[in-house]
Design brief:
Chains A, B: This is TetR/AcrR family transcriptional regulator. Two copies of one chain form a homodimer. The longest helix of chain A is centred in the C-terminal third of the chain and has 25 residues. By secondary structure, chain A is mainly alpha-helical. Chain A is built from ten helices and no strands. At the A-B interface, helix 8 and helix 10 of A face helix 8 and helix 10 of B.
Chain lengths: 194, 194
C-alpha cells in the first residue's frame, strides 16, 4: 500500500507529466524534463514512478476507469430516461475535458504509445465503453425517445462533437464552462430527440 | 497556361501526394517516395511540381477554395432558410471527406507545415470561412429558426461533429455514404432547430 503522502506526490507527478506530454508530445518529453518540472532530482522521482511507460499507463487507466465506472452506474439507473442517461455521459465527457484537460488529451492521443499488454487492454476498454454507449442510444431509439438514427453514427457524431472542447476551452474565456456545456448538451440532445 | 494533359498529370501527382501525406505524414514523405508512387523519375516529376511545399500549398488552397466559394454561393441565395444554408454546408463537409478524404486530411492536419506567407493566408481563409458559417447560425437564431445557442459553440460543435467521417469512412462499409450523411445531417439540424 502507498502511504497517503506518497499517493498525493505521485498524482502530482502524473498531472505534471500529462501537461508536458500535451505540450511537447509523449516522444518529446524526457524523465529529466519531468523531474525538473516537479522539482525533484531524477533519482528521487524513481521512488514514485518507474518509467515513462508506467506514467502513460496510469494516466490512460485512470481516465478509462472514470468512463467505464460512470457508464456502469448509468446503466444501473432503471428509472431514468435514455435521454437522461445519454445526457449524463455527454456532460461527463465535457467536464472531464474542462477539469482534466491534459490527462484526457493524453488518453485521447498518446494511448497508441502504450506497450503491450496495456495497449490491447486500453483498446478493449474503449471498445466496451463505446458499445455500452451505443446500446443506450439503440435502446432510446427502440423506446421511441430518439429519432431512428444508426446507433454507431449517432455515437461517433456525439463523441466527435465534444472533442473540440479539448482544443478550445481555457479558463477565463468569455463563455463559462457551464454555458459551453449547456449549449453542447442542448444541441446534441435535441439532435437525438424524436 | 498549363496544357490540359499537364494539368491532369499534375492533379494526379497531387492526389497521390495527399494519400502519401495521410499515410506516412508530411514530414515522413519524400519527393522520391512520391515519384515512385506516380511512376516517374524524380527529375521528370519536377516538370510538374517544384517542391513538397508547393504540393502542400496547392492541396490546401484547393480545399480552402472549395469551402470559401460554396459559402459565398450559399450566402447569396436569398430565398433559402438558414436551416437549408447550414444543411448545405454540413453536406459539403461530409461529402468532401468521403470523396476527397486524403486532400481534406492534409488541409485539416498538415496546413501547419505551410511556409509563410501561405501559412498566414490559409489561416485567414479558414477564419473568414468560420466567421461566415457562424454568421449564418447567428442569423438563424435571430430569425427564430434556431434555438438560442452561442453561434461559435454551435459552429465548432458542428465542425467537430463531422470530423470523425475522415477516420471512419471507407468505401464498402455496411452503411452507405448517403445513409451516413443523412443521419449526421438529421442529427445536427434537429440539434439547431428551435
Amino acid at each position: 500500500m502507498l502511504t497517503t503522502k506518497k499517493t498525493i506526490r505521485r498524482q502530482f507527478i502524473l498531472d505534471e507529466a500529462a501537461k508536458l506530454f500535451k505540450e511537447k508530445g509523449y516522444g518529446g518529453t524526457s524523465m529529466r524534463d519531468l523531474a525538473g518540472n516537479v522539482g525533484l532530482e531524477a533519482a528521487s522521482m524513481y521512488n514514485y514512478i518507474k518509467s515513462k511507460d508506467e506514467i502513460l499507463e496510469l494516466i490512460c487507466q485512470r481516465i478509462a476507469g472514470i468512463y467505464i465506472s460512470q457508464l456502469a452506474e448509468i446503466e444501473q439507473t432503471p428509472q431514468a430516461t435514455y435521454a437522461a442517461k445519454v445526457e449524463a455521459l455527454i456532460r461527463l465527457h465535457i467536464r472531464l475535458m474542462v477539469e482534466e484537460g491534459p490527462a484526457v488529451s493524453v488518453a485521447n492521443h498518446d494511448w497508441k504509445y502504450l506497450p503491450e499488454p496495456q495497449l490491447t487492454a486500453f483498446k478493449q476498454a474503449r471498445k466496451s465503453y463505446e458499445q455500452g454507449f451505443a446500446r443506450l442510444i439503440e435502446q432510446g431509439v427502440a423506446a421511441g425517445e430518439f429519432q431512428a438514427l444508426h446507433p454507431s453514427v449517432a455515437l461517433f457524431t456525439i463523441l466527435s462533437a465534444v472533442r473540440w472542447v479539448e482544443l478550445w476551452y481555457r479558463p477565463g474565456r468569455e463563455l463559462s464552462a457551464e454555458e459551453l456545456e449547456n449549449d453542447i448538451v442542448a444541441m446534441l440532445l435535441s439532435g437525438l430527440a424524436k
